[in-house]
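Deliverable D4.2, example record:
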Amino acid sequence: MEDDAFLKQLEGYGLATADILYRLSDHPKILQTFVWQTYDLAPEFPELKKVLDFWSHSIEGAIHLVRVAHEKLIKSAELRLVGHQFRLH
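Output generated by the structure prediction step:
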């Protein structure tokens, strides 16, 4: 059984968190926050770009600010090949 998140991490994806600050459409002086998180590729962030593109075309609240944090959870020094595998029942 394969874990999609683990396979993405092996391909170079890292955990990206975006804090999106946006204006309410009916009260433009009020700002609200939305936190979005997924595995994405830095520095291009293709998944985040899709979300922001969807937001700008489909959601009325105008985006004021986007803060992004990204961390590769598996780094090359932490991954090593194993020569043998033993199973205990």
